[in-house]
Amino acid sequence: MALHSAQKGKLISVIGDEDTCVGFLLGGIGEINKNRHANFMVVDKNTAVSEIEECFKKFVKRDDIDIILINQNVAEIIRHVIDSHNAPIPAVLEIPSKDHPYDASKDSILRRAKGMFNPDELL
């Protein structure tokens, strides 16, 4: 399946702090489509919550994006929007940032997956 997606030109997108985005861009994931829309968003302390929500919703609607990587601390800010996304594609993966370590208890996707195996753990 991953090979099939790669052949069709599916993208990974990133929403995160500058260090995270730069790291992934240096790794070659950066793309600006024909409509001049990037597949990444740098979030800093001055970024409005509405901007982050709007970017996430745009990434979810794009048919050329299969995976959305988001810093977990940013995901916490728009948790209600992430929790409302329940389609398998694009997959939403919460990742740590330099200043905020990963906390599995906050990851809504992981909690949902655990609930599939043990309904008592579903929050």
Task: Report on the architecture of this protein.
- The chain has 123 residues and is an alpha/beta fold.
- It contains six helices and four strands, in the order αβαβαβααβα.
- The chain has a four-stranded parallel sheet with strand order 2-1-3-4, sandwiched between helices.
- The radius of gyration is 15 Å and the shape is globular.
- 22% of the residues are buried.
- Residues 1-6 have low confidence and may be disordered.
**Which class in CATH terms?**
Alpha Beta
The helix-strand sequence is HEHEHEHHEH
Question: Which structural class best describes the helix and strand composition?
Answer: alpha/beta
The CATH architecture can be given as 3-Layer(aba) Sandwich
Biggest sheet, spatial arrangement of strands = 2-1-3-4
CATH superfamily grouping: ATPase, V1 complex, subunit F
Oligomer: single chain
- Rounded mean pLDDT is 85
Q: Nearest-angstrom radius of gyration?
A: 15 Å
Tally the structural domains: 1
Query: Unreliable stretches, pLDDT < 50, 5 or more residues?
Result: 1-6
Number-wise, the strands total 4
Shape: globular
- End-to-end Cα distance, whole Å, is 30 Å
Number of helical elements? 6
Secondary-structure map with pairings?
Blueprint: H1 2-7, E1 11-16, H2 18-26, E2 40-42, H3 49-61, E3 65-71, H4 72-77, H5 79-84, E4 91-95, H6 108-117
Parallel strand pairs: 1-2, 1-3, 3-4
